[in-house]
Design brief:
22 helices; 371 residues; 2% strand; mainly alpha; 3-stranded antiparallel sheet; globular
Amino acid sequence: MATQFPEDFKCPISLEIMSDPVILSSGHTFDRSSIQRWLDSGNRTCPISQLPLPQHPSLIPNHALRSLISNFTLASSPKLQPCPSNQTLLSALSPSSPSSSSPSQLDSLRHLHALAKHNPNFRREITDSGAISAVLRCLAAASYHDKALQEAALAVLFDLSLDDDNKVGLVAEGAVAHVVAALRNGTPSCRALAATMMTSLGVVEVNKATIGDDPGAIQALVCLLRDGKGRGRREAATALYTLCSFPENKRRAVESGAVPVLLELAGSGVERAVEVLGLLGKCKEGRGEMRRFDGFVEVLVRVLKKGSSRGVEHALSVLNSVCGCCEKMGIDAVKEGVLEICLGLVGDENLKIGRNASSLIQTLRRYQSMC
């Protein structure tokens, strides 16, 4: 019988057992990854109480609840003893093993995922027993012929990537190439999971360069951004935002065709796309590409008028980058009323918005006489 966890251990957003519970200023607790996605989407209210939150909400670790969940899991672990040992599970993943048929591999991966998903102690145990190389071999073998096995292997690798110590190790062992393969040929849910894993790995600064050096990584994310749906697009945008803080990856994203796709998504209200544009606007290749689109200014004006604080902040940054080096864009921005919008934002309680608005005002005033 599966362990029945108390309802208080479940995140109100994901309904999964929390691995990193944090407290909002509203007093409610959520799993960090879930509430961060809520905030990254531009929401500034508590998902439960609907009370307003600060522009930059603090996420306070709930150490007491985390300890309770960990202790409860450890106390319940004897129920898992009848299941195969980790070494038995890992042996089923090896291509040379007599027991390595797809069904047994799939069962082993799913059991490892169940162990690793919520409990860092199990993740360490699985890693120490050699799971990374075993699961990578399984993922490589499954990439083109067994989509269920591919997704199960990727889920285990993502679980292991939750621990900072594993992020560099996964990349060093060649995980990026296999994740890129999943981004290209996986099912929609598998492609979304692969993009999420890119974000997880890319949190470590040294990994950003290594991932970008893979000839297909950035391009695969742009492809998912272009032809994916729903979650897949959101995860691809988040992964690009994470990776493009590294300068060379900005150029790679532009060369892979990210700008027109991001503009289309920004026009549809996807504010993460505006944030990525804000990063790409900091490189000359990105600015050059943005200047090619006639509707560019209009899209960002809509964000300034209707977007969240975070969207407005990045829209101002992009406009300042592009208008500062392109007279036509500057004139278009003045004609679209951006100067007046900025004057109303100078005193915004979000200091970054105020600074960006002031800077853009200085940029646009030199174009006023040309309109």
